[in-house]
User: What shape does this take?
Amino acid sequence: MTDRQKWKNKKTVIPEQSSPPPYEPPPPWIPPKERWNDSNYNNNLITFLPRTVVLERSGDHRLGFNIRGGPAHEYGVYVSKVLTGSEAEKLGLKSGDKILQVNDVDYCDIAHEEAVEILQESDMLEMKVQYFPYGYSLQQNRIGMI
Assistant: This one.
């Protein structure tokens, strides 16, 4: 039997059908002149680079921000709220910042409770954060906030 005959006699195996990932609509359309002021159309890549924020706390002062997330909710640990006028706001923390590391502790796969404990027990926080609003909105949708 020649190779051509073998090829003709070979049965085609069709793999199981799988469904595509769920559709995620693009950000709402905004006229070009208004895009400069909209975070969905920010093309300044420096905005999205990881940065280090050093926050000192004395006594029983609050941190000035809240966090949300962890492996149970996927997508990481994010800053969910920054109090107006707080030291955290002055240092540039904002809602949508993904916390990558705090005091040399990796926050990529840390439980929420452990993340909060580390933040509350430390008087000096050296935080590596990255602004990632897309991941933050995915997490909000998953938790059911929106």
Q: What stands out?
A: The helical segments are 3-9, 87-90, 112-121, 133-143. Residues 59 and 95 are 25 Å apart (CA to CA). The mean pLDDT is 80. Residues 133-143 form the longest helix (11 residues).
